[in-house]
Write a structure and sequence with these properties.
- The protein is mainly α and 270 residues long.
- 67% of the residues lie in helices and 3% in strands.
- The chain has 3 domains: 84 residues, no CATH class; 76 residues, no CATH class; 41 residues.
- Strand 1 and strand 2 form a beta hairpin.
- It starts with a helix and ends in a 19-residue tail after the last helix.
Length: 270
Amino acid sequence: MAKSSFISRRVSEFVGVALFALALIWLISLASYSPSDPVWFFNTGSRLPPANFAGRIGAFMAELSYQLLGYSAYLTPLVLVVLGWHYFWCRSLDAAYTKLIGALLLFGCVSSFLSLAFGTSEISGKLFRAGGYVGDRIAALLASYLNRTGSIILILTLLFLGIILSTQFSFGRLFAAIGQMIRDRAAALLAAHRAAREERRREKQRQEVLRKHLEKTPKDGDAAKPKIAVRPGESAPERAPGDAAARGAARQPAPEEPPRKPSRPGRCPR
């Protein structure tokens, strides 16, 4: 049992790698397409070697893809990559039939929309239907009943349905996530604006308190002068010239007295 499980896992990994390689070859074939390449069943008269990077097989794959699907052929490598990813990690496809129907809708809607929108287009100097033969037939069938505008509306509706079925993608969750992101961003901007406004208000209050404090603080020169109380209705007394002289004399140090000589003791009377 364990051995069969191991072999099954190895086979699944091999299939996943093979699908990755096929997707890469298909993408290179489409990107390096040249209309002058010799292609089986399409262009057999040329004897020149193919310019396609994937050789004759790549030229055939690119020619067949553009003829059938047009530019929507670039969806084929994407589908192969998704399948290879699931096979490589041994993951089963949930609702495989639903995703298959969604993939078919996706190819048909993209091809028909390209045919209605662009008609024919030039690829490497050769005219092709933008949506290929499949898209051209579907677009012609829808236009015969709904005309061009109605066909485009129906195709876009089916295109969204194909995306939902093939990828299990939910537009409701997408719009909810976008709305939540916008709300979070708006809340962050509003909070930043409120914080900046509060900071400006606090800075203004600090400046006001500092200004009032500076107005109340006396100057250095005024603080050194003695304050004389003056009664209402009286003028401050004027200082007399003698007061200044007396204050100057009072500040001068007093002269020192010379030292006295010690007196000799007198003789006692006989």
